[in-house]
Amino acid sequence: MGHGHPHSGTSAPTAEAVASRKRANWLLAAVLVPLGVLTLVAMVLMWPSGSREGISFASPYQAAPGVTFDTGKIQRVVQESCTQTGQATGEAGGQSGGSECTFAFTEPDKGGEPVKVVINPDVAKSHGVDVGDSIRYLNLSGVQGAAASNGSPSFVFVDFVRDVPITLLAVLYAVVVIAVARWRGFRALLGLVGAYAVLVSFILPGLVEGKPPLLLALVGSTVIMIGVLYFAHGFSARTSTALLGTIFGLGITALLAAWATDAANLAGVGNHDAATLVNMSGNISISGIILCGLIISGLGVLNDVTITQSSAVWELYELAPDTTARKLFTSAMRIGRDHIASTVYTIAFAYAGAALPILIIVMLYDRPLAEALTSAELSEEVIRTLVGSIGLVLAIPVTTFIAVLVVKATGMRRLAGTSAVGPDDVNDAGSLAAAAAVVGSTPDDTHDAGTHDAGTHQGGTAADGGSPASPGSRRARRQAERREAGSD
Predict the structure, then answer these.
(1) What domains does the chain contain, in order, with CATH numbers?
(2) CA dist 297 to 127, 168, 254, 480, Å?
(3) Which of 55, 58, 179, 380 is the most exposed place for a label (fewest CB within 10 A)?
(4) Contact 135, 71 (CB under 8 A)
(5) Which contiguous run of DSSP H or E holds residue 102?
(6) Residues 6+ apart with CB under 8 A from 291
(7) What is the pTM of this model?
(8) Counting Cβ atoms within 10 Å, is residue 56 exposed (0-12), middle (13-18) or buried (19+)?
(9) Which residues cross the membrane (predicted)?
């Protein structure tokens, strides 16, 4: 039987709720839509042609006629003289004299008798090879004179085959993400694939063709963030607020990176890969590549802090809509400061871990600390850490400020006044569910609120802390309404 009481948590969003949500979305769309259109137009105008004209390079993975790259599994490993001649017997020792080399008798994956593969000295010394390892090797046996009387090897180690361990780790990563984050985690993984598609099809070819690196990085990064944020977190005012904060952080990072690359003369001097790229084409700018890398490297962490900060503002306001804008900003920034502290460590140690070989070499040189940090070997990593951290830190208060403006502009307090309970009941789960509808929360968020509300109906006084209510009080009236709802 119906008693004419609208029950919080089960009623549809009111007209006020819908209007408030639309106000929030229109407010953000007025800024983001023109920005998105401008970004897409710039992307179309800057899209690389894909032409490799004027690029000359010799790929180490392209074999000469008669030479092939084969794979196989090691059956046994021996140490023999590097100057050994004649037929390989496979016995350890061989002829005496000269230095010793490591040889791996490898069974080809394509079938046939085991072949004797010589292992590079640096690999044999640093890591070594073991029985059961899968390796890729250069097969020179098809080239006439490859196995001449001087004892030149016919099979040379190239690399390890890592397909199995990397595939297992990737599958484990996907399983863990989806198991914990469920559908949202799955969407985030798909968004990551899309982000790499933009990187490979737009940013990298654009750098090869000599497109403006600053504009290329900004346009590509903005497209990536728009896709990743909305795809993983859904279309909502929270996500739009986080996107605005992210774009601001990107802008600051880009400006600082452009200045630092020029002021610190980051030219990639002494880097073997940089020298290889310079010799490939006159259109490739190493400074431009470094600049683009400085911007892209902080995308993940920047996205993390802005979406977290935006959600924090929404949750705080939903719990207490009467909070003033100043107090709401202050409370959210307490969370932001903790996030800043931990994230700065994350960036610094991530780059330090990637640069460990360089750090060890610099340490062994016994150079003064200031000189080492500003050297060609470390300056790029130091500037990457500083530029990324500054953009990240400044994005947090900006995101918080935008989020406070948006939630205050949505009229959530008026929504609380139109519900079945009074404005003082904003902590009730039903009010939270209605408030979530205003700002466009995801279905998961509103479901959680509805579940909590259902538990309140079952427990009778769960939302009221389990304490008895005074007769005639607002709490007693709520409890009576819930008991009536239970009788329905």
Answers:
(1) 68-160 (2.40.50), 165-409 (no CATH)
(2) 30, 26, 11, 57
(3) 58
(4) yes
(5) strand 100-108
(6) 213, 214, 217, 257, 258, 261, 266
(7) 0.67
(8) exposed
(9) 26-47, 164-181, 188-208, 214-232, 241-260, 280-302, 343-365, 385-407
